[in-house]
Structure formats: C-alpha cells, structure tokens
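[09:14] KT: can someone run the structure on this one? pasting the chain below
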Amino acid sequence: MADVTLSAKDSPKDAAFEIQRLIRIMAQLRDPRSGCPWDIEQDFASIAPYTIEEAHEVADAIDRKAWDELPGELGDLLLQVVFHAQMAAEDGMFDFADCAAAISDKLIFRHPHVFGDESRDKSAEQQVKDWEAIKAVERAGKAERGTLDGVALGLPALTRAVKLQNRAARVGFDWPNATEVLDKITEETAELVEARDSLGADALEEEFGDLMFVMANLARHLKIDPEQALRRANTKFTRRFGAIESALAAQGRRPEDSDLAEMDRLWDQAKLAEKARA
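[09:31] RB: done, structure tokens below
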C-alpha cells in the first residue's frame, strides 16, 4: 500500500498513484475510529454545497487567468468527487472506480466519430446535433419522456434557464431572433413596474423572475454565457468600487464618509482610467 503521508513533491508524478493516494487519504479521514470528526459527520447533502462552491472557484481561476492557482482549485474539485465516492462506498452503493468508469463509458458512447466507425468529416454544428441525438437516447433509457426532463435542479438559476430554453428550442419553442426577445424584455419590464406600483411582494418577485428568464434567453440568442457575463460584471464592479475606496483612503476617508454624488464621480474617473489603459 502506498504511503499516504508522502508529500506531493516526494511522490512520483504518476496520475494513477496520486489518485489512489487521494482515495486512501479520504478513506482514512472517514475512518470511524481514527479519522477526522468533521469529515466523519458529513453526508451527501452537507457536502453538496462545497462541491458547487469548488466548481465556481475553478471557473473564477479560469476567468482571472490565474493558471498558477488552477491546479489547486481543480484538486479541490477532485476532492469533492472522491469525498462523495467514499461515502457511497461506505454505504455499498458505488465507489470512485464506478464514477470513472461511468464517465469513460459515456465519453466513448457519445463520440462514435472518434471511438467508433462514424466519420469525423462533419461540421461542429452537425456534431452538436449528433451529440443531442445521443443524449436523447440516453434520456429515453432513463425514462425521461418530457423535453425538459433531466435538467438538474441544483444548477445555478441562470444556467438552468439557458438549458431549459435550449431544450425547448430543439422542438421549435423559441423566438426566431434576438429582436423579438428584446421586445419581450420591454413587455416584461413594464409588467415589473406595474407589479412594483400596484401588486404585492410575491407578484413583484414573479415578474422579476420572468424578466431574468427572458434576459437569459437574450443571452442565448446573442451566444453569450449569462453566468460568465455576470461574473465579469461582478469583477468590474468590485474593481471600480475598490478604486473608489482607494481614492477616498488617500484622503483618510471611507465610503461611509462620502456621499453618492462624490462616489459617482470617483466611479466615472475609475471608468475613464480603465478605458485609457485599454
């Protein structure tokens, strides 16, 4: 058995070795007699939020082009797979090997033009259509009959909206172009204003959700990933607000010592400075 106490620099740079080492470390952490109390107490539900968080941190590192951080973030995400697999193995459901086998089999099945006898001589658009046809066969095998069946509830809401809309679009339920989506946004905005002025909190939330859903549809038509677009907007806001704080700090002040008019002016200065550097 490999020594799990070996550090990464001491162990051979071999993927199979490191995977086995990680699996053994996780098993030791979950050992009821000698493991870590926190790890032992966890279950699928308690670990699921960490799995989502780690996936987002991978995306964040990629968005920031923090390539030196990416191996660690991917390792954190891999830990989540190993953690879930260990808990399943303890309950006799499946183990890490089953997870790896499942994705390997799926990749081979979904790429007959690479692993089978289908021709690779086709456009990317045709490959997407073929991919969706194969996934439809898989869904049928899972008794997923409805067009929207199988779209995970746990996805971020914007991502799930896009996936639901993509599914509906495959059967013809979609606006033909972005112009009609923009018209719908105008309509939904008016309904949101009406709800704000005359309806209750539940109706206001519903109308806001409708507007967000149509915005996700606009992103589809413009071929924009709405999650990525919002992440970039968050990053820009953080950067520019940081510039406001820095400008005020240079005067020995904080944002709460300022007012909206001054902070708006500092925001505009930060915006102009960014454009000058671009």
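[09:33] KT: thanks! The chain has a mean pLDDT of 90.
[09:34] RB: yep, looked fine to me
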